[in-house]
Amino acid sequence: MQRLSVGLLTLAAGLLLGAQSARAEWPEKPIRFVVPYPPGGGTDIVARALGKKMAESLGQPVIIENRGGASTIIGTEVVARAEGDGYTIGLVTDSHAMNPFFFSQKLPYDSVKDFSPVSQIVFVPFVLVANPKAQISTVPELIAAAKANPGKITYASIGNGTPHYLAMEWVKALAGIELTHVPYKGVAPALADVVGGQVDVMFTGLSSGVPLVRAGRLKGLAVSGEQRSGVAPEIPTVAEAALKDFSFMTWYGVLAPASTPPDIVDRLSKEIRKAVESPELKAQFVKLGLEGAPSTPAEFGQFLQRESARYQHIIKLTGAKGE
Phi/psi zone of residue 11: left (φ > 0), alpha (ψ -120 to 50 degrees), beta? Predict the structure, then answer.
């Protein structure tokens, strides 16, 4: 019996060492990075820049897989259902914290239990832009036009339950105005229609909106953060322009399936920090108006809890509901 016990202990120790050795060799193949948005928007730009830098360090390709739609639910479910082997990670934004409170129907995953927080990537200030033909150049002009013509001013978003949508719903609630929502499946098609004049206004990331403002194709009404952006210091904040209680910053982060081993989650987190703090990405993010914000898995988990509480409050305030 004693020999049998020793043999079992030896076998267990061998299996444990074998598993640790296998994970020590991670990654041995490409990593899938699921982005729950279509190509062309700010999330896609950041994911591809981050993935490229991580691949250089890890020695394996990081392959971007765009799975847009349903307010990020489609792509996020892909991550939740993936094998927790360290070879699937997913980008998330505010929508991840927002969706459980926004939609009345149950999500196809548990936003907390089905994921392992890895790291935040960046904070993303929005810019409120308008088509020049709308003859709206400031937030007060937008409010005045909306009050004079209730429901006739249109705004684009990348779908119900997204930060772009909720930011404008909050403006509506604070200003006491009515605007008509026009949802799209991604930033690129939404911006294309604002530029084309089919829709009047939109909140979008600085990286996608400011270049169009610089080119004279859109009007920059305001930025969404507490302070003006160094990328476009001439554009006031929404609070500065008209609505003193408004401050809205979206963010991007990375999650892994819940069953991903903690040591791989930690390694991924460290690789993200290394990439975000690299001179190349720092310079690129500054040009895009993004603020690098890498974090540990524990810090990102705590941040997600705070964001969930914040969005629950905003959704209750605005009465926003999923369709």
Answer: alpha
**Residues 255 and 202 occupy one common structural domain:** no
Residue 8, domain member (yes or no): no
Residue 195 lies in domain = 125-241
**One domain, residues 266 and 132:** no
Cβ neighbors of 137 (< 8 A, separation 6 or more) are: 130, 219, 221
One DSSP character per residue, 196-241 reads HTSS-EEEEEHHHHHHHHHTTSSEEEEE-SSS--SSSTTSPBHHHH
* Cα–Cα distance measured from residue 238 to residue 140, given in angstroms and rounded to the nearest whole number: 10
pLDDT exceeds 50 at position 33: yes
Tell whether 70 and 207 lie within a shared domain. Answer: no
Confidence (pTM): 0.78
Q: Which of 222, 241, 260 is the last residue of a domain?
A: 241
Question: Tokens for 35?
Answer: 């982005």
Q: Answer positive or negative: Cα dihedral of 152, 155, 158, 164.
A: negative
pLDDT at 3: 52
